[in-house]
Amino acid sequence: MITDISRIFHEKLEGNEVTLRGWVHRHRASGNIVFAAMRDASGIIQLAIKKDKVNEKDFKEANESYVESSIIVKGTVKKDERAPGGYELQVTNYELVSRGEPFPVAKDLSEEYLLDIRHLWIRSQKMTAILKIRSTMVQAIHEFFQSKGYVLFDPPILSPNACEGKMTLFEVQYYAEKMYLTQSWQLYAEAGIFGLGKIYDVAPTFRAEKSKTAKHLSEFWMAEMEAAWMELPQVTELAKDEIKFLVEKVIEKHVAELKILGRDIEKLKSQVSKPFPTITYTQAIEMLVKDGAEIKWGEDLRTTEEEQLMKHFDTPIVVTNYPIEIMAFYKPKDPKDPKTALCFDMLAPDGFGEIVGGSQRSLDVNDMMKRLSKEGNPEDYNWYFDLRKYGSVPHSGYGVGVERVLRWICGLENIKDVIAFPRTMSRNKP
Q1: Side by side, which strands form the sheet with 158-159?
Q2: How confident is the prediction along the chain (430 residues), in pLDDT tens digits per residue?
Q3: 169, 183 in Cβ contact below 8 A?
Q4: Per DSSP, which regions of 169-296 are E strands?
Q5: Which end of the chain, N or C, is surrounded by fewer C-beta atoms within 10 Å?
Q6: Interatomic CA distance for residues 336 and 346, integer angstroms
């Protein structure tokens, strides 16, 4: 019977005979003994292969196994404080399944080279820790919404319409017509709420943004929600609750992985243990100007301004009511302040920037048509405007950038590290 390496540590299997299978993680031969670190998907353990404890063939294979060779070993678990994790396997049988060639991953390699060999770098402790955290976070998104009665709703990936502006569309040949990879599920989600009420999804999203920053991907994942009868104050509170829930779930299950990444777990706990403040864009501008920032009301907050603003806060914050002139066509004017929109962004502390964006949705077809006419043909959206003709109600939604939240949770410098195979304007391989 095969045992997962993690069981040895969790169940303290000292003295037990176990069989493990996995890959050589580290390797050092010294005379009549070979020390190797062996990994499987659950963890890493030290192996001690002594010449007088195994047959000649097994010792020869152990001695000649390169890093990443696949192996099956049998032996007795021994407590050893010098070994990583405090346990060692004293091997009695060593089977080399496939001898790996000299592995091209080593210390001090450039980021670009590691991206070139991402199909191999994905085996590293760092990447497996990140991807385990990612898996838990995505599962937590489903848990959060389903516990609140939301219905999973899957939109199309191919769309005839832009949702977030035509400048970032990926065009696709669709038989004899032209289509686009989705920028957001939102337009279709707005159709879904009139039958289902409260819906959510986790799906790939595509933006042809010509940006090489540490915060941008061309293909990324969005966790989006939409709900009928919901207005801006309610949707911002829901977003706060979701982000707190996701972080708490990751901390609950992945202390070991966060430590591998060097994340300050106590600081992360502190950041979600307190209420998240809500301020307006106007208040944000006033704070920035007081700090000496050269920004005028009406200008969008760039990364520089977001980082400066967040020096005032030690938790995520919600910023509402951005200028209507720089917002998408579906974001309505605030009746109490018509120069602003009923919209919001959530910003993460420590310079991680925007992680959530959302709004109440406009019900004013004439206003949306007028704003759309600046970019193209409003008639392309007639099907969307139909939603306002047949019993429309106030409704709202938001999107969580999965990779952006993960980057903050993991405390990583570059967003490319939190997705298995990143796609950017300069990288489409492997």
Answers
A1: 158-159, 177-181, 171-174
A2: 999 999 999 999 999 999 999 999 999 998 899 999 999 999 999 999 999 999 999 999 999 998 999 999 999 999 998 888 899 999 999 999 999 898 998 877 899 999 999 999 999 999 999 999 999 999 999 999 999 999 999 999 999 988 887 889 999 999 999 999 999 999 999 999 999 999 999 999 999 988 888 888 999 999 999 999 999 999 999 999 999 999 999 999 999 999 999 999 999 999 999 999 999 999 999 999 999 999 999 999 999 999 999 999 999 999 999 999 999 999 999 999 999 999 999 999 999 999 999 999 999 999 999 999 987 789 989 999 999 999 999 999 999 999 999 999 999 999 999 999 999 999 999 9
A3: yes
A4: 171-174, 177-181, 198-206, 219-228, 278-280
A5: N
A6: 22
Positions of CATH 2.40.50.140 in the chain: 5-98
CATH architecture of the domain with residue range 5-98? Beta Barrel (2.40)
Tokens 């060097």 sit on residue: 262
Q: What is the DSSP letter of 340?
A: E
Give me the half-sphere count of Cα atoms (radius 13 Å) on the Cβ side of residue 295: 25
Here the tokens at position 374 are 């600046």
pTM: 0.95
Instruction: Indicate where the chain has its CATH 3.30.930.10 domain(s).
Output: 115-418
Question: How many CB atoms are closer than 10 A to CB 318?
Answer: 22
**Alpha helices, H only, 118-196:** 118-121, 125-147, 186-196
For residues 192 and 226, the answer to whether their CB atoms sit within 8 Å is yes
Tokens at residue 302, please? 């760039």
Chain mean position to CA 225:
16
- The angle at the Cα of 414, spanning 408 to 417, to the nearest 5 degrees, equals 90
Fold (topology level) of 115-418: BirA Bifunctional Protein; domain 2 (3.30.930)
Quick check: 17 and 34 in contact, CB under 8 A? no
* Pairing status of strand 43-50 against strand 87-98: parallel
